[in-house]
Amino acid sequence: MAQKILVVEDEEKIARFVELELVHEGYEAEKVFDGRTGLEKALSGDFDLVVLDVMLPGLNGLEVLRRIRRESDVPVIMLTARDAVMDKVSGLDAGADDYLTKPFAIEELLARIRVALKNRVTAAVHTHRIEIRGVCMDVDRHEVTVNGEPVELTNREFELLRTLMENKDIVMDREKLINEVCGYDYLGETNIIDVYVRYLRTKIDDRFGVKLITTVRGVGYVIRG
Ligand code: CA
What are the φ/ψ torsions at residue 208 (nearest 5 degrees)? Predict the structure, then answer.
């Protein structure tokens, strides 16, 4: 399902442009033009992230942010006027995840949105243990055991396994896995994931006689639960 982003910005041209770009990137987007409506929508629980301008009619953006934070930890990226240092500081103090100074490049906003969404997902999933067919991952402790026996994994092997376990039954293509395991700025070989899958199979499947990671030909990999 597409992630939904709320854009609160009274300059309609900017709001419209951001909305179009977000939709083009595969998000669902909705724009509103004043602080009160923005607050109401942000608290509706319908949105995964809020882009919030500081200078707004009705309630200003900082006040909207303060009121959002009383009830919700939805990621918020603030848009501030150029050199408005006070706005930035106040915004971060009030619980903004990030801010961007106008005028901004849309690519920069999209990058910040990706990071904020990813951080939020990471924060949410890092608090639990995942167990699938005897393979147990403690994400906080960065530990993996199979049938109670510890398995030593490198960071990237761990991240790959974590991504597949967290997305149980969802086929993950190589590009998604590369983003998760190596980061969005990775420019190396695209077969890197196949290499790490091979390492994981040696360390887990071969050693413990399980069949954990399934290859989906032409697509990627999946762990079925
Ligand atoms: Ca404005």
Answer: -110, 0
| C-alpha separations of 149 from 136, 160, 196, 209 in Å | 10, 19, 21, 13
pLDDT in tens, 142-165: 899 998 899 999 989 999 999 999
Local structure of residue 170 (DSSP, 8 states) = S
Query: How far is the centre of ligand 1, averaged over its atoms, from the C-alpha of 61 (Å)?
Result: 9
Cβ atoms within 10 Å of 190's Cβ, excluding its own: 11
* Residue 125 predicted with pLDDT over 60: no
What pLDDT is recorded for position 203? 96
pTM above 0.90, yes or no: no
Distance 88 CA to ligand 1 centre (A): 15
Ligand 1 centroid to 212 CA: how many Å?
Answer: 52
> Residue 185 Cα, ligand 1 centroid: separation in angstroms?
32
Residue 184 has what pLDDT?
75
**Cα(7) to centroid(ligand 1), Å:** 11
- In sign, the C-alpha dihedral spanning 77, 83, 89, 94 is negative
